[in-house]
Amino acid sequence: MSEMRPLIGLPFGSGSNANPAPLQSYWDAITRGGGKPTFVPLIEDHARLRTCYEQLDGLCLVGGGDVAPERYGSQRPDLVHNIDHTRDWVEDVLAGWALAEDKPVLAICRGVQLLNVAVGGTLYEDIATLVPGALSHATARDLPPGTIAHTIAVEPDSRLAQLLGVTGPAAARVPVNSRHHQALRDVAPGLRVVARAPDGVIEAVEADTAGHPCVVGVQWHPEGMVPEDATMERLFARFCALCVAHP
After folding, report:
1. C-alpha span between 101 and 144 (Å, rounded)
2. What is the pLDDT of residue 217?
3. Which of 61, 133, 138, 164 is most buried, taking the most CB atoms under 10 A from its CB?
4. Segment 50-71, tens digit of pLDDT
């Protein structure tokens, strides 16, 4: 456990993934929330990766390209793009360790998709193609990150509701941005759906394992709504607090 702020790992790559600029908003949101972000290198080496992992108080799986279709038996690989096999492998290993060893996890956009696949779930390869009547969830990609696209309904008895600080009618209409073309399809055993968009698309899941400090995955980009949105800022602050409390 770090002495002052919990150390939160952000998997970070090399080559085409070497520019840290896309991660700045995650870095800033975690810092504002009381955490100390640190990069976890994308290395296909169990021993070195384990050494990095053991220093962490929490893990944040962030947005990016699509998860490799062969990882979940995709029938439409033609709809999948921007794959990074090394990142898939590293994040799969990290997620497995964190779930098995009760390390807090906050998974965002691609992160929640990777989390679901890592424990046995599947994905819609492209919402617009495969989900009739769905909202245009990717319409905000060219707009400012904090642009509100739609609302979500959050289960009031969920860990997510606690992290967001929403109760009663407010939990039924939480405004979020939307910057994704894929979504969870079959939810993996051990995960519970705790939020949906008005079109039924899954917007959040969390571990239903009793006693786990926190495993929450969200499909939107809360880091892009900080600091203007107090609800999303609270999400990061309370997640970081759980990482401090975790032994």
Report:
1. 37
2. 98
3. 61
4. 999 999 999 999 999 999 999 9
Is 18's pLDDT higher than 60?
Answer: no
User: 104-156: per-residue pLDDT in tens?
Assistant: 999 999 999 999 999 999 999 999 999 999 998 986 666 777 788 899 999 99
The ranges assigned to domains in the chain are 7-245
Instruction: Give the side-chain half-sphere CA count within 13 A for 6.
Output: 28
What does residue 116 show for φ and ψ, rounded to 5 degrees? -65, -45
Give CATH for domain 7-245. 3.40.50.880
pTM exceeds 0.70 for this model: yes
| Integer CA distances (angstroms), 17 to 64, 124, 176, 216, 222, in order | 10, 24, 26, 25, 21
> In 32-172, which ranges are E strands?
36-41, 58-61, 105-108, 123-124, 150-154
Q: How far is it, in rounded angstroms, from Cα 116 to Cα 232?
A: 22
Which of 116-146 are b and which e, b meaning 16 or more Cβ less than 10 Å from the residue's Cβ? bbbbebbbbbbbeebbeebbebbebeeeeeb
- Among 128, 130, 153, smallest CA distance to 139 is for 128
Cβ atoms within 10 Å, residue 208: 15
